[in-house]
Amino acid sequence: MLPLLSDEILLEAYHHATRLQLDREFLNLLLAEIERRKLKLPDDLAV
Fold this sequence. Notes:
Blueprint: H1 7-19, H2 24-36
Helix pairs in contact: 1-2
């Protein structure tokens, strides 16, 4: 869980992580938290 991040910052972090092609495990961690919070990814970030 990443409770200290706001929803907006979490989505922004995921956006930058995908753009920078960061480690897949890190992307999965962010994505799991996004799904846990039931957030909707913008269309350009949808997996």
